[in-house]
Amino acid sequence: MSEPIIRMDSISKRFGALTVLDGLSLQVRPGEKLALIGPSGSGKTTILRILMTLESISGGHVEVDGEQLFHMPGQGGLVPANEAHLHHMRTRIGMVFQHFNLFPHKSVLDNITLAPILTKGVSRRDAEVKARELLEMVGLADKASSMPSQLSGGQKQRVAIARALALSPKIMLFDEVTSALDPELVEEVLNVMRRLAAETDMTMLLVTHEMGFAHDFADRVLFFDRGRIVEEGAPDEIFRHPKQERTQTFLRKIIAAGHRV
């Protein structure tokens, strides 16, 4: 067995008096496809934001690809990470957000090439070659010169996926990437993610309410409630034979709302 690419040990996260993560421990294998499900406010997105260093932790340790995320070696042991260390760690992780977060005043091509040029010192020519390859992969080869305002929601989200892939991350994080889309646009984004899962060995963590997709996509499903992992297992185990009453109640409500699981 290979070493975990992500290791979270006794992680707590508090916002004032509110505890969002409560002693969470989690390991993810290289190449694993993980779906995080559960009610809103259960801590799923906070996990992704911690891995992206958009949120700090209140306690515990996070290790990514064999290195501490929020700590680094110092005199006498580990010390809090400085900005240079955080920047170094961020280059291994890509994240696609719920609301695209594209730069509205830059073309599709510029949105994708900006980070490789600025953060990795890639030449503009090489960055543009890679960007066009990625646009081809997400089905938007003809949109390189378009502005975000000229795109549909599904197209914007596919550009956001291409932008995250432009840094060649080892780990991809997807945070409710279809929840802001009109229903008829959801499938075009899910198809890109299916292709990524099938054709790459990237580690992928997905927060979603699309239970049918989570079932088909994931190697392992984690059900969260109140900052804790209540149940985890293979997709068939969680969706067809959940053991915990809290998981059963959640899935009954999802099915009653008309979602496929």
Please state the second-level CATH architecture of the domain at 1-92 and 172-178 and 202-261: 3-Layer(aba) Sandwich
Overall mean pLDDT score?
Answer: 92
Number of helices: 9
Assigned CATH superfamily of the domain at 1-92 and 172-178 and 202-261: P-loop containing nucleotide triphosphate hydrolases
The largest sheet is:
6 strands, mixed
Number of E-state strands: 12
Helix content: 25-40%
Strand order of the largest sheet: 8-9-10-3-11-12
CATH topology call of the domain at 1-92 and 172-178 and 202-261: Rossmann fold
Order of helices and strands: EEEHEEEEHEHHHEHEHEEHH
CATH class (first level) name of the domain at 1-92 and 172-178 and 202-261? Alpha Beta
> Structural class, from helix and strand content?
alpha/beta
Shape, per Cα inertia axes: globular
Content of β-strand: 25-35%
Low-confidence segments, given as residue ranges, are: none
Oligomer: single chain
Q: Determine the N-to-C terminus distance.
A: 30 Å
Rg measurement, Å: 19 Å
